[in-house]
């Protein structure tokens, strides 16, 4: 019943499974627009501007930071990454829901810059499971894993600032819950325009 | 992930289809407890105490009003009707969701007495459709219908005090939306107990 799209911010500690859940959600709901990031890093082979990333020059990126044109941004090593506000807003205005899959720090910035978003915190089933997942990636040393887990504990403290928390015990369960959250958010009374629904017409009988 | 049940208050103007939607919801979700009303009217043939109603003596009912034992109550002609707080609370504590299907005045009282409920306003697709539905019942005179429609317009103004509004264009659509709202409500961060989810365990690796 609502006309404007929702900005769904999917965040949570690293290892919670944000990427997998987001991908599965988009497969089931292709009408949702994935928020494309801007970056100053070089395109890799096969990456397409406007699909994988908006590849942006450093000076342009910095100009957009200055003009508050990012919902969030970060510098990772030598490269900037950010969520262009214009792209998100344009989609929302066209009635399209946008999903932004992002780390906890990024989500914090979006809360400040776009508090009307729907903030979903994805929880791994337990720290044990989280450590298993990080282990399985096999890309990190034991020390890095310990740091990641310690920071995950800290990040879980952030959950209270979100609207929803979804347990990622199974990807399909998490996807079902996020779909339900989207439906429910669209039923919130502040998102419904009764005038458009025709209730202000004259009484149909005399 | 939450342990306590939800109190779902389904309300809306007369003719919105509350009864039909509630029945269809309970058929799909038999784990939800229908809130049983107390009444001082005589049982009709086949009505069972504790199933259709809690049949209550006038003096007991009035005592319970005095001791604030109703989430809402009303006197209709010579009979009292009310929602016993104890029955609802007991079910919620046992983790069972309770649905209360009630008119707009009743819902207003529940908002005061149990603001932590989930208040859903059921909207008929339009006033035209609402008048058709009331017509089809065939039980009301034209004057009564006009009064009902006028009061429906007033009742729709109450929508802003609810958490959600659900358009009852088709019963199955309305039921799907209410089911989604229930799922989403249980994902709200204030309803999730992380400690119980095991995140406060020690880090599993050394």
Describe the overall structure.
The structure is a homodimer of 206-residue chains. Chain A has 206 residues and is α/β, with parallel strands linked by helices. Chain A has a single domain (7-191), classed as 3-Layer(aba) Sandwich (Rossmann fold). Helices cover 40% and strands 19% of the residues of chain A. Chain A contains 7 helices and 9 strands; from the N terminus they run βαβββαββαβαβααβα. Chain A has a 5-stranded parallel β-sheet, with helices on both faces. Chain A has a 4-stranded mixed β-sheet with strand order 4-3-6-5. In chain A, helix 1 (18-28) crosses helix 7 (171-187) and helix 5 packs antiparallel against helix 6. The first copy, chain A, starts with 6 loop residues before the first strand and ends in a 19-residue tail after the last helix. Residues 200-206 of chain A have low confidence and may be disordered. The interface between A and B is large, with 44 and 44 residues. Chains A, B: It is an enzyme of class 2 (transferase).
């Amino acid at each position: 019943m609502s006309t404007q799209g929702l900005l769904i911010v999917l965040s949570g500690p690293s290892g919670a499974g944000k990427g997998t859940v987001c991908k599965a959600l988009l497969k089931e709901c292709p009408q949702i627009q994935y928020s494309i990031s801007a970056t100053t890093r070089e395109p890799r082979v096969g990456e397409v501007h406007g699909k994988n990333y908006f590849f942006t020059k450093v000076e342009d990126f910095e100009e957009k930071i200055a003009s508050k044109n990012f919902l969030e941004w970060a510098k990772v090593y030598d490269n900037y990454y950010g969520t262009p506000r214009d792209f998100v807003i344009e989609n929302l205005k066209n009635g399209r829901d946008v999903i932004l899959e992002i780390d906890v720090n990024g989500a914090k910035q979006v809360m400040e810059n776009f508090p009307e978003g729907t903030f979903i915190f994805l929880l791994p089933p337990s720290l044990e499971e989280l450590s298993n997942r990080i282990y399985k990636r096999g890309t990190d040393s034991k020390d890095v894993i310990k740091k990641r887990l310690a920071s995950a504990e800290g990040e879980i403290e952030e959950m209270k600032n979100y609207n929803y928390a979804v347990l990622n015990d199974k990807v399909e369960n998490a996807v079902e819950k996020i779909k339900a959250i989207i439906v429910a958010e669209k039923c919130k009374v502040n998102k419904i325009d009764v005038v458009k629904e025709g209730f202000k017409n004259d009484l149909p009988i005399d």
